[in-house]
Amino acid sequence: MDAIVLLRNDHKTVEKLFKAFEKAGEDAHDEKRRIVDQVIEELTVHAVIEEQVFYPAAREAAPDTRDHVLESVEEHHVVVWMLSELADLDPSDERFDAKVTVLIENVRHHVEEEEQDWFPEVRKAMGRNRLLELGERMEEAKRTATRDPLKVPSARE
Ligand SMILES: [Fe+2]
Ligand SMILES: [Fe+2]
Questions:
Q1: In this structure, which of 49, 52, 65, 113 has its CB flanked by the most CB atoms within 10 Å?
Q2: Which residues of the chain have pLDDT under 50?
Q3: Cα separation, 122 vs 64, whole angstroms
Q4: In 24-95, which residue ranges form alpha helices assigned H by DSSP?
């Protein structure tokens, strides 16, 4: 699969989970726990394949994207720490919904920047064959990627 299509599919999966969270009732603690656990796994794996495979390749193919890539890694840093906090926070805690809401805001902003501001530039610079080859490597990397947000490289950067 084309690398950018793969990443956009991940974004859609996460957006669906966000919508489900927003629709869940105030006291639907079990449901919210399940949704947030899925968000943690999806975003952790997604951040790993972007940081280890896609971002370095993008920067190499389209050096003008450097600042976007650097900003994206900083945004990942914030997100993975929030994910690690959410993993340990009880959904009945009064801070839980507030933390998820801020996470959702951050991720929506981040995804919009990736999809609107700089992925198109990468697509142009790489071309179809290179994107397909990269997509294959990313699918492979997904299988073995950590599920622990604090093991994502940007957590320590
Ligand atoms: Fe990202
Ligand atoms: Fe992304």
A1: 49
A2: none
A3: 9
A4: 29-49, 55-61, 66-88
